Each structure stands twice: as structure tokens, then as C-alpha cells.
Amino acid sequence: MDIVTGLFYLASAVAYMLYLFFQKERFQESGYLFFGGGFLCHTLTLIMASIRTGYLPVHNLHETLGLAAWAVALVFLFLRQRYRIKIMGVYAAPLALLAYVAAMQVPDLPPTQPEAVYTNFWFFAHVITIFLGEAALAMACGAGILYLLQENAIKEKKRGFFYRRLPSLEQLDGMGYTSIVVGFSALTLGLVTGLLYSKLIWHRFISWDPKEVWSGISWLIYAVLIHERLVGGMRGRKAAWLAITGFAVLLFTLFGVNFFMDGHHGEFTQF
Q1: Tens-digit pLDDT profile for residues 251-260
Q2: pTM for the whole thing?
């Protein structure tokens, strides 16, 4: 099943790249179908793994990357239905493929904590909301990248490669903002459930673990972005750059913190 899922994501990424260059609708439709097939296979794999072990498979780097790929796929399919921005598959499919292939390259190590730690409801709620929030913010980053490409194409005297291939700036800005609102809401819920889980397991709401500190920094970046948009009317290039910066900090929070700093979240990226 793992190989089938990877092949579906690969076929989707190739089809979307062909759509970017040749603008043939059949390539986009194929990419969308392949991506949906990969998501279904991936979902079945996660369900079977959960049934086999009795808990959500996210206790090492192999499973963390796999769940990240699944969350990206789910959020993209949702946004694809909501905004009909077909070209976003050019960003989402390679991203899901990259995370999935990376997951396959690291060993699936046994858990280091008692099973009760992983079967706790608050742990499940914390992990799912965090990953879905980060996937939505990944899509906001993608929308920001495409916004900057389209803006530069519009400014050129001779409209470049991306001008006729990307949606309008308004569409990209709108999808980026929706992704940020959804991602920020899920991230907030994930942090709250994480505090409750920490209180239950370690008997304190916060332990100033490096992951907790950087999660707070990431949250503040997106809180500032939303505030500036609602109050200061920030749009366009500034919002796009802030969305990209915020996601870079999120990536460091998700992976870099565990690699370079000691803390009790390190087990989830062990390899």
C-alpha cells in the first residue's frame, strides 16, 4: 500500500507539472484524480496502522512525515473544492510527495513511551489539529509564492511564463487568507489541547520545552498577520511574504527544534 500511495502522489505531481507547462485540462484532471487516489490509499494505510497499534501513528520521524503528507493532501483537496484554483496542485502534489518519500526513507522505530501516552484523547486532538493547521498554513505559503510570481509577471512589460498560467492576484490573496484563518484556528486549538495534555501527563500546563516556545512564536506571527489584515488592511505582497516567513518558522518548529534542541517532543522525530 505504501508503494501504491507513493506512485499515486508521483503521478499526480508529474501530471500537474505537465499542466503547468502545456495548460491541457486533461493533465489537470489526471493530476487531481491521481492525488485523490493517493489520499484514499494513504488514509487506508493510516487507519490500518492505527487499528494494528491501537494509537495514532505519529511516534517517530517516519510516521510524523507520513501524517504531514496526509494532512497536506486533505487540506489541498478541501481548498481545491472551495476555490477551484486548479494550479495549486503544482505546489501541493510535489509537497505531499516530498514528505511521503522522505517518510519512506527513514526507519519506523518502536515507540519510546508507554502506550497510554499515545492513546489519550487529548494527545489525538492535539496532534490532528496541529497537523491540519500546519497543512493549511503550508497552503497559505504556496498561495503566497504564487502571488509573488504572478505579481512579478504582471509588472513585466512582456508578460512572462506565469501570467497566463496563474489565477488573479485577488483569487490567490483570498485563498491565502482563508488558509491562514483555517490554519491559525486549528493551530490555536492544537496549542490549547496540547496544554491540557501536558497538564494531564506532566502535571503542568507548560514546561517551556523548546517546541512549546517556538510554537508560541509561530502562533504570534500568524496572529500579527491576521490582526494587520483586519485592522491595518494589509494585503498583497506584504501578506504573501509574511505567510512564507511564518511557514518557514513552522517548519523549524516542527522539525528543526527537535533536531537541534533537547526536549520531550524529540521522540516524535527520532530516526
Answers
A1: 998 877 777 6
A2: 0.90
